[in-house]
Amino acid sequence: MINRELTEELAVLLDLERPEAASLFNGFCGAMVAELLAFRKLSIKGLGSFYVTHVPASKRSNGSAMIFAPPVNKLRFESTLSGGDASLSLAVSRLSMNQAEAARFARTLATLFLAALQQEKAIYLYGLGRFALEDGAYSFFPDRTLEELLNREYQDLKAVILPQHSEERSERRSPGYILPLVVVVLVGLLLAIVYGRFSWSTFFPSPVEPAKSVATVVDRRVAAVAPIPAPPPSGPTAYPGKTPKGAADSLVLVKGDYAIVLATFETEKRAHQQIAPLRSSGIKAFVWPTSMDETEYFRLMTGRFANYASAAERLKGLPKKMVDGAYIQQVKKTVVLHGEKGL
How many domains does the chain have? Predict the structure, then answer.
């Protein structure tokens, strides 16, 4: 059984029963986890140093797609001490030992740890990780639960994959017959004008309207600038004009705000196509353009939040099937976003 030999030796050296020694060892492991979560670094004599490193968001290409990886915190181990030994202070503050008991316990544990590492024995530090020999190498493997705790602020963000050869590019190409057809039409027009067979008015007629019609056109133009007073009751009845379409729906994101990014696309058209299904499900989405290395992308986002906690709370409440892979992004500069009606 893993740690059996270590706890038996600990029981003998400290004159304890084996269950009591095992409980003491497990309590010390829990103290190490709590210290690491609180201060992100820990040095234990006989083992080495544990510390948390932050890996920022990155991008890489695998030839067929561009992969944007979210930030992550990783637990690292070094066999040398990067600071003072924390064993004594942990035994006193977290295991409630007096100074003499804590000093004896720390010395004994350091001796056992050092011997186990030199002999490449398997050691399991409950909640922290394990030392084991795998694939010919003796290494430290962090506990998965601890790494999840270290990355709780990123809400298990997933990588965004953007194909480098989008099918949308084929839609941008004009059909092959368009150019020859345009050339034929232009040549025909030029020949008709040069040889005088047709006047310019043949192709672009300008119908002459009575004076009253011209006056009506002028009145409509003026109405676009200043409203015309309502006619007196005795005059002719005016027909109501059509109600102009409303302005495009929009959202202003101010620098420092937080927003939820639902997905990222290479083309604006693809991004706008996804707005209607989201809004029909109660998620008001907008298109948020961005660029990287002179390449433009279009993010589909929702919400405007004053802080990260508010955005995280909203993200938890969104339907998982609709927003799988969504993440939280802080606004770097003020921008106006547009919804399904566009600009």
Answer: 2
pTM for this model (two decimals):
0.48
Are 274 and 263 in contact, with CB atoms under 8 Å apart? yes
In a domain, 257, yes or no: yes
Helix (H, G, I), strand (E, B) or coil at 67: strand
User: Any idea of the CA torsion for 278, 281, 283, 288, to the nearest 10 degrees?
Assistant: 0
In a domain, 148, yes or no: yes
Alpha carbon distance 101, 105 (integer Å):
6
Name every residue whose Cβ is closer than 8 Å to that of residue 181 and which is 6 or more positions away in sequence: none
Collapsed DSSP state (helix, strand, coil) of residue 22? helix
**Three-state SS at 295:** strand
- Boundary-marking domain end, from 155, 184, 200: 155
Rounded to 10 degrees, the C-alpha dihedral 10/14/19/24 comes to -80
| Alpha carbons 328 and 324: distance in angstroms, whole number | 13
Q: What is the pLDDT along the chain (343 residues), one digit of tens a residue?
A: 468 889 999 999 999 999 999 999 999 999 999 999 999 999 999 999 999 999 988 888 877 888 888 888 999 999 998 878 999 999 999 899 999 999 999 999 999 999 999 999 999 999 999 999 998 999 999 999 888 888 887 766 777 888 865 444 444 454 555 556 666 667 666 666 555 554 444 444 444 444 343 333 334 443 344 444 444 444 443 333 333 344 457 888 899 999 998 888 888 888 888 888 888 888 888 998 888 767 788 888 899 999 999 988 998 888 877 666 788 889 888 988 876 655 4
